[in-house]
Amino acid sequence: MIQIDNITYFYKQNEPIFSDFSLSIEDNQTWSILGPSGCGKTTLLYLISGLFQPQNGEIRIYGKVINRPDPSVGLIIQEYGLLPWATVRINAQLGVQIREFYGPDGKHAPRDTVDHKSVDGWLERLGLLELADQYPSQISGGQRQRTAIARTL
Predict the structure, then answer these.
(1) pLDDT digits (tens, 9 = 90+) for 49-61
(2) Cβ–Cβ under 8 Å, residues 49 and 75
(3) For residue 21, what are the domain limits?
(4) What's the predicted TM-score (pTM) here?
(5) Residues 46 and 98 in one domain
(6) For residue 143, how many C-alpha atoms fall within 13 Å in the half-sphere facing its CB?
(7) Are 48 and 62 in contact (CB under 8 A)?
(8) CA-CA distance, 145 to 142, in Å (whole number)?
(9) Sequence-distant (≥ 6) Cβ neighbours of residue 101 within 8 angstroms
(10) In-domain check, residue 34
């Protein structure tokens, strides 16, 4: 469950992107965020993910206040964020490497790391295993999107 309560968010003290905005998304609901360029769709996702902080109000996920990036929240950005010099497999492994570095709570590196470097299971589920050694420039846009999803998962 995502609960957004009366958030206000400004860029550089200009007109607010959000002013006393509230939204409640229950479990098993699917929502789409639609609007013209520059209306705040991506900003809202950054706020929910903890990358941005509202000047007022509060965002909670399952009751937990989001006041910084949380490792339990995944965000797949519009441009995929893939490293062009890295293969599909290496791009997908980056998510595991980041999570291992910061640890399960997002603050502390774990003392004992488990070898989760193999992402082949996710690549297989997403239909990418046969493309694991290809580079982003060699695969389609949909395959790039699925690579970003594999990295997030």
Answers:
(1) 999 999 999 999 9
(2) yes
(3) 2-65
(4) 0.65
(5) no
(6) 19
(7) no
(8) 5
(9) 109
(10) yes
